[in-house]
User: Fold this.
Amino acid sequence: MKFSTLSTSDQLDALFPGHVSLEAAPEGDLLLRYATTESRSFIIIAFDFNVAGGSMGVRECAQINYAFDQARTSQRDVIFMINSGGARVTEGVAAVASYSACLREVVDATLEGVRVYSLIAKHCYGGASVLAASGTDIRITPEAHFSMSGWRTIVKYETELLNRDITSQEVFSVIDGLSRSTVSNKFMLVEDVSESIKKSFDSVHAREDIKESLAQLDARLLSGGNRAVVAGDDAVSTSREMFGKEWDGSGAFFRARECELSTHAEFAFASDEFAKADSVSRLTSAIDSLNHEVSLVTIFVSCQSHSPFLEDEGQILSEYFSGLVIAMRKQQRRGVCFQTVVFGDCGGGIFVSLSAGSSKVSVLSSARIKVLPDDVIKSLGQQPSADRAIDELVSVGLVDEVLPGDWMPTVAM
Assistant:
């Protein structure tokens, strides 16, 4: 019997006989376990796709935070057994706020030396894929799916916006485990058999150097991953005026032409369309290569969501978002403060990544923050939630402050 066809409980029994529950763990739909092999001990975080599609809501994010707190205390490695559709969209912005804090916790733990492994035997979409990409490595079966957007969303946007006649099988050939393992060395292909997967956890893999990892992501963009790169707006240099000053950049990424203080860097991620791998990579590189004098970075963002196109999924878009969070949190460890200012529509992977990486998130009262674009929510069989009053975003912990709609930045923020 294939490992992927087993229930979550049976998968745990097959890989880690004698596993026990974490004591005093908060309630939620995830299974938290202590487990040991002949040579190693782990904390297991297991998702059950049969319960709300394995999605992460407020309670589940609290469970993950608790598990990582225990991992730090007990000096155990962590294994995500992921079978998940991502964030729980039915809980709206409260789930986004919890997920953002959870992603920050995972990245901080990895920077502190906690090894985080992921096992994907079937489904890993949305926020779950960014969690997995933030870790040391990913074990994946050949037919498992790994992507930011669900395959139906990809087909919808490729068909309606790009006028491409695309099949589900074409999408699967890009997002399945076999393809992922050929594009990224973070992915380890394993047979869909319990014994094969169990043996894979006997070996220890060193975490890749961050600069080396980011360099590999840049190189992947040049090679095209497993999709041909289509030269478009992201390859064209341009300039624009925002907040009373000139900005230079390409795609969605811009940097201020002039900044009054050498200790302050200003970037913008602004697009009427989607956050693509190229632009996310440029922002990440700019953050990773900050001058050591810089102590404050302000990032202005207006971008509705992450790209739902197969070209970007061919690059493994989730790795670019995890790389962005890692670069921001790494700089914060040396004392750099990040403030993200949302000045337009924003949501999806670009918002949660910037939110997870930031010290402070501000939003103009004229802006809107969404879990995902409304038509994506509908394609998932859900009804879009009504826009929350902007002040409520503070109460659920999604943002730290609301700024007037006519706000203009000053040097001292």
User: Anything to note?
Assistant: Confidence is low (pLDDT under 50) at residues 228-233. Residues 92-111 form the longest helix (20 residues).
